[in-house]
Amino acid sequence: xxxxxxxxxxxxxxxxxxxxxxxxxxxxxxxxxxxxxxxxxxxxxxxxxxxxxxxxxxxxxxxxxxxxxxxxxxxxxxxxxxxxxxxxxxxxxxxxxxxxxxxxxxxxxxxxxxxxxxxxxxxxxxxxxxxxxxxxxxxxxxxxxxxxxxxxxxxxxxxxxxxxxxxxxxxxxxxxxxxxxxxxxxxxxxxxxxxxxxxxxxxxxxxxxxxxxxxxxxxxxxxxxxxxxxx
Length: 231
What we know:
231 residues; alpha+beta; Arc Repressor Mutant, subunit A; 48% helix
């Protein structure tokens, strides 16, 4: 009989530095050991040992490019697991980054599979202000007005609610220090915008490009003017 080795997994992700590395990789960028070490406040040599443990337990993968080795989350299931832990974990005070990311990374990017950055937070604010969404504790609920709007936008709310993934919740954006829409609804919104040609995923990156069609649609549908930026 074979069972998941949950105690080992708990020991792996329960170590603060390793959990911090997984959280950093949730932003979707492939990071070097040095970048992960800096982000978690440890020495590069210490980071290497933690990365080896995360790789042995199939939580991350690495790719060599030139002189550097880049790390990223191994699978979508790993990202969903980290996302779930972020939702249920007790909030704690964090030290904000020294400066916000500039250019394309700060304008729009993926936080795993939903929109983050200026675009993600501003769209979420509009949805809340128009009362399509409302915050209920640590969750977000779709209002009656929102049901009609999301249906018109091409999103099947009933189908999303049947998924095992959490439906919708406020996800704190590390660069904007405001919430963007996370969960299955956030992912569905992003997927719909991709289908409509409003946005596009840059190759080998989590940076989101906004098309001219998208800029016009965002201004029309959300009263949002997102300034053009370069990576």
